[in-house]
């Protein structure tokens, strides 16, 4: 007969082993969380740094435009006569024998030098042409303008000396073209008899003067403007007329879609004068807010308004 021995549970294993496994699992989970949080923080820091660099680059890129705008505003005030040209404004002072030249570029130079100047017409990445002019061999060298941390500009072409307290934080270069010297695709048409305009009308500019545009092509462009409105960009000529894409691709710097005729809107349409009285119009002008029942009545009174004329004007302006 075997004796009966009461088990104490020690031979089944200690419960301390289970606690150890649980602790290890918790440590692994905490480690994974800490590593994940660290990785996320590092990625966010890189993202923020990249966003900051993008914003700084954008500010520097726009700074060239703002400098050009400031020079134009200063040169074209109402106290003097002036004329514009690509990259330049000539200001005429009655007391001076020669006009004052106001450059609309950062600093002209004949060659590109590292850290001093840059070519603004480099070859495009996806097309065998320059970014501004078609021929990438034409170098548009402009000097850098450096900006220090305190907001001061260095003279064009001057490389900044090292400064631990006021380092250089960026640079920019720019050139301002004069679109007024380009062919306006929203006003130019032809000098042929098909154009009924007078000799001074903006449509008398010969659009076909830019090869390989032909009379058939420019007539198609004019018909599109008449039936559908102004072109939003010069590139839209490619969709309006077959063959016009070659003209734009060959010389995009020749065309503009902005309007510079005083009596036309930026979309090439006749301008409305802000008056309800025909007697206030200049000689030869016909478009005004013709919304009154009688021309001498006041537009401030609802009873003076002609609903039919108001509806027609609204349709003309907003459709």
Write the layout of secondary structure elements.
Blueprint lengths: L15 H60 L5 E5 L2 E5 L7 E4 L13 E3 L21 E3 L1 E4 L19 E5 L10 E2 L30 H14 L8 H4 L3 H7 L4 E2 L50 H12 L1
Strand content: 5-15%
- Low-pLDDT segments, ≥5 res: none
Overall geometry comes to extended
Distance between termini? 112 Å
Structural class: alpha+beta
Q: Write out the strand line-up for the largest beta sheet, numbering strands in chain order.
A: 1-2-3
Mean pLDDT: 83
Individual helix count: 5
**Rg measurement, Å:** 35 Å
Helix-strand pattern, N to C?
HEEEEEEEEHHHEH
Largest sheet: 3 strands, antiparallel
Quick description:
This protein is α+β, with helices and mostly antiparallel strands and 319 residues long. Helix content is 30%, strand content 10%.
Description:
There is one protein chain. This protein is an alpha+beta fold and 319 residues long. 30% of the residues lie in helices and 10% in strands. The strands form four sheets. The chain has a three-stranded antiparallel β-sheet, covered by helices on one side. A two-stranded antiparallel sheet has the order 4-5. Strands 6-7 form a two-stranded antiparallel sheet. Strand 2 and strand 3 form a beta hairpin. The longest helix has 60 residues, at 16-75. The radius of gyration is 35 Å and the shape is extended.
């Amino acid at each position: 007969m075997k004796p009966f021995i009461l088990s104490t549970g020690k031979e089944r294993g200690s419960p301390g082993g289970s606690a150890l496994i649980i602790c290890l699992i918790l440590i692994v989970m905490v480690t994974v969380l800490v590593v994940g949080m660290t990785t996320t923080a590092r990625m966010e820091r890189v993202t923020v740094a990249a966003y900051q660099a993008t914003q700084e680059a954008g500010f520097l890129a726009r700074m060239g435009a703002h400098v050009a705008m400031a020079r134009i505003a200063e040169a074209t005030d109402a106290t003097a006569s002036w004329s514009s040209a690509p990259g330049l404004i000539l200001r005429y002072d009655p007391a001076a024998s020669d006009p004052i030249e106001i450059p609309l570029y950062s600093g002209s130079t004949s060659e590109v030098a590292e850290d001093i100047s840059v070519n603004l017409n480099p070859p495009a990445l996806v097309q065998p042409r320059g970014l501004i002019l078609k021929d990438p061999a034409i170098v548009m060298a402009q000097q850098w303008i450096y900006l220090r941390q305190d907001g001061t500009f260095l003279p064009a072409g001057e490389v900044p000396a090292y400064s631990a307290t006021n380092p250089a934080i960026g640079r920019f270069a720019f050139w301002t073209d004069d679109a007024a010297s380009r062919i306006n695709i929203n006003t130019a048409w032809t000098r042929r008899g098909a154009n009924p305009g007078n000799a001074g009308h903006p449509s008398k500019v010969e659009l076909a003067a830019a090869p390989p545009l032909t009379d058939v092509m420019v007539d198609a462009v004019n018909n599109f403007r008449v039936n559908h409105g102004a072109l939003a960009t010069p590139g839209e000529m490619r969709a309006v007329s077959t063959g016009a894409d070659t003209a734009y691709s060959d010389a995009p710097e020749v065309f503009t879609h902005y309007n510079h005729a005083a009596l036309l809107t930026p979309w090439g349409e006749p301008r409305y004068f802000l008056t309800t009285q025909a007697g206030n119009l200049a000689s030869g002008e016909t478009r005004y807010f013709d919304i009154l029942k009688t021309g001498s009545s006041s537009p401030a009174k609802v009873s003076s308004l002609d609903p039919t004329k108001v509806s027609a004007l609204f349709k003309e302006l907003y459709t």
